Amino acid sequence: MGIQERPTVKPPPFDFKLRLEDFDLSLLPIAPAVLQADPQLLQQAISEYYAGLFRPLGGTANVAIADGVLHVAWQPQQGIPRDLLFERALGLLQKGDYRAAEPLLQSLHARFPDDPDVLFNYGMMLSDQGKLGPATAMLARLVALQPDHSHGWTAFGVALSRKGDAAQAVAAFQTALKLDPNNGYAARNAGAALSRSSPSEALPFFKQALALLPKDQPTLFGYGRCLHQLNRTEEADSILKQCVDLNPLTEVAEQARTLRTSIAHHGMREKAGGGLRPDVVMYCLGALQKFRELGLDKTRAITVEVAMLGRNGLDINDPAQKYTLRSLPGQFSGLHLVSLMYVGVKQFDPKADAGIDLSREYQEALQLFK
Amino acid sequence: MDSPGAKRLPKEVERVTGYRVVVDTIDGISEDAQMISARPEFPVHSIRVNKARLPFADYIVAIQCAMLLRLWSDPAHIPVFSPVEDKVRYAVDRATKARGLSKLPVGDANQTASRMVHGLLDQLRSMPLEILTQRDCYEACPDLRELQADSVNENLRRLSENLSPEIRSFAPETTWKNKMSMTAALALNWTQLSGSSLPMLPYQSAGFAGIAQTLLDDVIARLARTSSSYTGLVDAWAAKLGLRNLYQWEYRNGQQ
């Protein structure tokens, strides 16, 4: 009798159901009003959406809609459907493609409600989306199932903090740090939760976080703001500058830039003991003379160019002549440029807000210019 | 900006045009960004990203730079789309009398018609360039494709609101059809790039698949990265949509 080959056992299909009313219409590139007005289009769009979602995973996906319920059955060619699906969701999350990951996690959670990986990732995603009720419930379930899950405690703390429960949040972060002292996110979030009420207590957490996450923009911002709250402005400014330089076009960078502007304006005055800055008077006087020589069109161009550069912040407390303009030859310090802009703005509208108060220096320069 | 593409393109614009690119943010606009191209009295290219769209900032900056590169391909001859006032006024008057709007008080009808006609012209000016540069970015910045998908899908979602029964019921028929035809071409372009059939579904069901293909064929015939390809494309679309007499091209010298 020969050896018989064992027939390949196909893994069971991954199937789940979803009520159409629970589908997030914002995942589709079609306006909800249009979909709601045309039930057939809505069904077709959701079916196509799920078919497209499973297509890159290979195998066969059957999508059907009946009585307002979506049924998806996916049969991979090989491998365990749960693992394949989770890996795909994780890959999408790591690439920052949350919108594509969401329905996969939603499907996985519908099928495996106590899966720790799913609870962690889906819970964090819901928390980021502001769906704090289900997020907190999911993450609470996770830490109950796996009390040694340091990142789970961190995510739970973040959701609690977003709900406004700072004390419980700090406790969760501290649990996370006890379980893993190298959890930089727990340290950062503990710092953030404490910084409003007690910056001095928050500071060591931010220091710890920065040592673990030196290129993390929220950590740099939190640390910089905390230093500023403690009146350590020079250190604060340097940290906030690093924060903006990491990626200037983020919400966090916006906040860091605003804080830096306020620090710079305050520092500029402080350097003269709150009094008149003679260097600014001379810059303003020079600008008045230069603008008279160049005429209004050129004045406008120079003012606009400096104003545009200034949007990304000019370093007005560094005397180095590190800036150039297209509209005016030479090299300029940040304070020199700001003075040029101030005088330029006042030429066109004496009442306009130039974004910085050099009024006393400008008045002095006008007296000298007469 | 994290993406190599988003970092490279502003430098490329500065090299080609000789003007600095300043990127910052702005509140309270409905578009992705506000872009002001440099001129002697405004000696920088300003790209102001809508704060509400910051998650897509890298892609938005890249596409705005791609637009600048196309428009400034000949810096001495930069095209400026210029509506012909009396013809536009006539089109507004006609739209005011159209079904739907004629039910409104005269002042409101006229204001709405004016907004629609000017919106249509704005779409004619910008959408061909948007399609061309979507293709440029898709090719030149593969690292931005996910951001691009999110950004384009969101834009398509917003634009498809015009298919809703409420808007259709009062919009002048010709203006609405023209608007939808161009939007369908944008959707078809993205369907081709992304491989997803979803963007085209509502336009197929509303009967715009044919005109979308025709308009996209015009795009494919004018992919060269020159400003004349862009103006030629706008003219080709305008001829098909009956809008050719509503605008003219003026040219400015960016080097002066």
Key structural traits:
heterodimer, A: mainly alpha, two-stranded antiparallel ribbon, B: 256 residues, mainly alpha, two-stranded antiparallel sheet, 10 helices, 59% helix, 12% strand
Radius of gyration of chain A (Å): 29 Å
How many DSSP E strands of chain B?
Answer: 5
Shape of chain B: globular
Largest sheet of chain B: 3 strands, mixed
Secondary structure blueprint with pairings:
The complex is a heterodimer of chains A (370) and B (256).
Chain A: E1 14-19, H1 32-36, H2 39-54, E2 60-66, E3 69-75, H3 81-94, H4 98-111, H5 116-128, H6 132-145, H7 150-162, H8 166-179, H9 184-195, H10 199-212, H11 217-229, H12 233-246, H13 251-270, H14 278-294, H15 296-310, E4 323-324, E5 331-332, H16 334-348, H17 359-369
Antiparallel strand pairs in A: 1-3, 2-3, 4-5
Helix pairs in contact in A: 3-4, 4-5, 5-6, 5-7, 6-7, 7-8, 7-9, 8-9, 9-10, 9-11, 10-11, 11-12, 11-13, 12-13, 14-16, 14-17, 15-16
Chain B: H1 4-17, E1 20-26, E2 33-36, E3 44-50, H2 57-71, E4 78-83, H3 85-96, H4 106-140, H5 145-159, H6 165-170, H7 173-194, H8 201-205, H9 209-220, H10 227-241, E5 247-252
Parallel strand pairs in B: 1-3
Antiparallel strand pairs in B: 2-3, 4-5
Description:
The complex is a heterodimer of chains A (370) and B (256). Chain A has 370 residues and is mainly α. Helix content of chain A is 63%, strand content 6%. In chain A, the strands form two sheets. A three-stranded antiparallel beta sheet of chain A has the order 1-3-2. In chain A, a hairpin with a 2-residue loop joins strand 2 and strand 3. The longest helix of chain A is centred in the last third of the chain and has 20 residues, at 251-270. The mean pLDDT of chain A is 90. Chain B is mainly alpha-helical. Chain B has ten helices and five strands, in the order H-E-E-E-H-E-H-H-H-H-H-H-H-H-E. In chain B, strand 2 and strand 3 form a beta hairpin. In chain B, helix 4 packs across helix 10 (227-241) and helix 7 (173-194) packs across helix 9. Chain B starts with a helix and ends with a strand. The chains are: A mainly alpha (370), B mainly alpha (256). The A-B interface holds A 26, 28-31, 33-34, 37-38, 41, 44-45, 48-49, 52, 95-97, 99-100, 247-251, 254, 297, 300-301, 304-305, 308-309, 311-312, 325-327 and B 1-2, 18-20, 22-25, 40-44, 46, 49, 51, 54, 57-58, 61, 146, 150, 152-154, 156-158, 160-161, 163-166, 187, 190, 196-199, 201-202, 205.
